[in-house]
Structures are given as structure tokens and as C-alpha cells.
Amino acid sequence: MSSLYHDELIEHYKKSPHRKVITNPSTFYGELNPSCGDKIEVMLVINNNVITDIGFQGSGCVISQAAISMLCDTVLGKNIDAALKLGHDEVLQLINIELGPVRSKCALLGLQVLQQSIISWQKK
Amino acid sequence: MNNTALREKFPILKKASKEAAPLAYLDNAATTQKPTAVIDAICEFYTTYNANVHRGLYGAAEKATTHYEAARNAVKQFINAQSNTEIVFTKGTTEAINLIASSWGKKNLLPHDVLLLSQVEHHANLLPWLELAREKNLEIRYIPYDQTTKKLSLENINLTGVKLLAVQHTSNVLGNVWDNDFSNLFTLITKIHEIGGTVLLDVAQSIAHYPIDVQKLKADFLAFSGHKLYGPTGVGVLYVKSSHHKELVPYQVGGSMISHVSYERASWAAMPHLLEAGTPPIAGVIGLHAAINFINTNISFPALAQHETALCKALITGLNTLPGIHIVTDTGDSTNAHQHIVSFYHDTIHAHDIASCLGEKNIAVRAGNHCVQPLIALLKIPALVRISVGAYTTLHDITLVLQALAEAINLLR
Asked: Which one of B27, B346, B350, B376 would you mutate to disrupt binding with A, by most A Cβ within 10 Å of its Cβ?
């Protein structure tokens, strides 16, 4: 019935397997979009530059929460360089809906948080 | 109010194609749609007498100047100002308030003077004063918003030292936060004048819903935008009461606002030209005039109040049957006070998701923080959905939005 909120998106929003707390992460990072209240925090376990576990906590709109969940799917088991190479287009392809400029920000918050958490780990 | 004939005058509200749903436009607090008369007036200006104003001596230029000044006269009558010199064309409410903060505030306010605002002001009537207060070491006091009564709380307001009261006549999120008949606002304005203070009223959200009379309101300054009044974007009005004209310095300097210029110095034109530097938004002003004519011909404010309030009451009744919805605006249960804005949020579903689901069905509402971030923080909610009605809104629009809301909640809950 809704072309925007397709089943996979709703599934990730409601029942993300990655919505969990990792107690001893290699790195964690969170951000809040003050204009809409979307909030995402990611926790990563990194071994030999490979993301071996990932979890997120957060609240906000379907797009923001489903996008980070799908991103977790994508980068789990991958090298951090692959995660850092992901761009806006890849995220928008991943969630597979057409978004205007306002809602694109919702989708891209997760990417920003994920990449920032890796960058801060690299600086350690 | 049977508004079928009125809707016919707004081309955007007509069904665009067999496939597309017609636009259910419920975002009138953001901007209103434009009637054909406004679109035609702008088109006629550009196609038949486009020229700059107050300069050329050829036919089109003189016609443009005549129409531009006729618009000023129409605005004067519309808000019952005493003189055309009191009407300044700006690019909108935001510029009008910035203009007063700069042109009047910098010259007439002294360190430790007090600005009295309310907790519900939108950023346009907050940030110019925060900046001025920082620059000139002024004190800002806020009239508190009472979340229980959903009204401003005027008891215990300390008026000592208040030099300027700058408030919205109605809030862009909450509608009327004064007494239902605005009597406590009138009393406050009288008190401010008694202690030698000045009053700025931001009527951006009221101008298309209430008859606005600057003399009855006793406003010293008043601001609104044309585009919330069925007029075009890019034009607004600042009213400055004549008795304050000597207190003003130029806001911007350049063409049109001068009396004499040499390589060394310049002298300034009188009001209203003093505050209209450069080429003004001529087409916008002509469009605004057409919008005012449109309202004068097609809309009766008492009938509009009844119409809009009935729509809001139907909306509130419907919202109350939906699970998880919390209405933030005053629902006016026991009164017949004029309502035109209903804001709400859902327990678990983000406002953006609700607005996107409605948007898919071509139903236009606003979601977000509505340029009132301090108020949203005060209310302790992440974001709101706002439904705002206008003269062309129908009960069918309300039915559509309620149906779509029920479906969205069902999908996302």
C-alpha cells in the first residue's frame, strides 16, 4: 500500500537484528539531528581491520532507523576501508526508495555516524 | 461557508490528472495557495508594464509606480493604518522584524533595557532580539507558556524596564495562546504603553484569519508576509506608526532611499522610502494587492472563523479516536474560539513518517520543529505534525487526512 515504506524497510525499522548494545566495543559514536530529533549511536568490534560485530541504538523516523540497520547488514564482516568508501548514492540504493532533499538527511545520518566511529577508532 | 466556488479560483487545487489524487492542502501556516487573480496580476505586470518604480518617465514606468503605490494604499486600508507612509514593503516577516531590530532597536535601546518576548516565538521573532541583546547588552524576559492551560501565563510578569514587547499575535504551532478574544494581549499592550514601552506584533499567522486593525491593536510596529495571505512569496509588510518615524535610521542604504547624494555624504528620503533601499519586489507588491482585493471580494472574516473552527473541531474529534495521538494545541473544548492550526504527535511514530505517508497520498501537512526549537524542547517532544486550514479547506480534506493517518498508524505502529 505504501510505495515509500516498503516491507523490507518496515522490517528493519521494527525488528532490526542489529538493534543491540555491544558492551566492549572497539569504538562507538553517536549523533543527533537537532532539526528532527533522529538519534543514532553505533558500536563496532574491529579485528584486523574487519568489522566483526556491529550494533546500534537510536530513535527517530523509519528512514533513519532502517537505513542504519541496512548499513549494519552491509558492513558486517567487511573491511573498514570498504565501509569508509560507502557514499550517499550507495545508501540511497540500499534503502531503495526515492527521497527528496529533506528526507535524504534522515537516510544519511547512519552513514555519517558509522564512518565517524571508524575514523575515531583509526585515530586511537 | 460553501467554499466550492472559492476553490475554483485556485488552479493548484484542481485535479491535475485522472491518475493523481487532487491536492489536499493542509499546510496553510507555511504558505497559502495563490488564486488565479494573483497569478494573473503578476503575469500582467511582467507582460504589459514591467518597469522599475519611482524612476522612469515613460508609460510603463509610470503605470508600474502608480500600481506599486496603489498597493501601499490597499495595505494601509486592509490593516487600517492612518497613512501610506506607515507601510513599508519588505521581503517578508523575517526581514521586517530584522529591520526593526536594526533600524529602530540599535538607535533607541540602551544597555539593560528589557525586551519582553514569549516562550512560543518562532525563530524570526526570537533571533533578531537575541542578536540585538548580545550586541547592546539588553535583557530578554519571556512570557511563560503554560502547558496545562495551553495559553501564555501573564500573571507575575515583571514589566519593570520593558522597552519593547515583541510577540506573535497567533503562534505558528499553537494558534491563539492569548485569551480567546485576545483581551489579555490588549491589556498587556496598554500596560507596556503606560510605562513608555513600544509594541511589535508579528501577525504572520493571523493576517489570513483575523481582521487586523493596527489602531485597535495599538501596535507601534506590525509585520506580516504576503505569501501567507494568498499572495506571492518575496514580499511582506512592515507597519511603523507615524509617531516612531523620527526614531528610525536606514536599514540598508542605496538607491531609492535617498534625498541627496554627493561623493562625501548623503541625506535620506522620508518614510516609507527611507526603509525601501534598492529596487523593491514590484511584481510581489502588485500580487499582494491582488491578494488583498481577492480577500476583500471573496472572504468574510466572521464566516471564515466559523468555517475554519468547524474544520478544526472535526479534525480534533477524529484525532481523538486514533491510537497514540497527542494534540498539543488548545482543543478549545468549551469554547468557540477561532481555530486554524492543530498540532500533534504520536507516541512512537515520528512526525516525518506521518507526513511522508500523507504526502504519498498528496495530502500536504507540515512535520518537524516548525522553526520553534526552544518551544519544542520545552514541550519535550522530538517533532510535531501540524495541520493548518484556510478558506479553501473542505471537510473532505479533513476526512482524507484522518483516513490516511489511520492507515499510517496501522502501518508503522
From this structure: B350
Cell numbers describing residue A66 = 532502517
β-sheet bridge partners, residue B366: B386
Rg (CA), chain A: 14
pTM for this entry: 0.93
Q: How far is B359 from chain A (nearest CA, A)?
A: 10
Res B1 pLDDT > 80:
no
Please confirm, yes or no, whether B371 is among the known catalytic residues. yes
B177: closest CA among B212, B207, B144, B224?
B144
Q: What is the ipTM of this complex?
A: 0.86
Which of these, A92, A120, A90, A98, lies nearest to A27 by C-alpha position? A120
A19 touches chain B (CB under 8 A): no
Is residue A21 left, alpha or beta, with left meaning phi > 0 and alpha meaning psi from -120 to 50? beta
- pLDDT tens string B212-234: 999 999 999 999 999 999 999 99
CA distance B339 to B342: 8
Region label for A70, one of left (φ > 0), alpha (ψ between -120 and 50) or beta (otherwise): alpha
C-alpha cell at B380: 519535550
What pLDDT, in 10s, does the model give residues B308-327? Answer: 999 999 999 999 999 999 99
- Residue B5's Cβ-count burial label (10 Å; 0-12, 13-18, 19+) is exposed
Task: Among B356, B369, B407, select the one facing A103 at the smallest CB separation.
Answer: B356
- Give the whole-angstrom CA distance, residue B30 versus residue B371: 11
Asked whether residue B161 carries a pLDDT value surpassing 60, the answer given is: yes
CB proximity A98 to B under 8 Å: no
CB-based contact B346:B354 (threshold 8 Å): yes
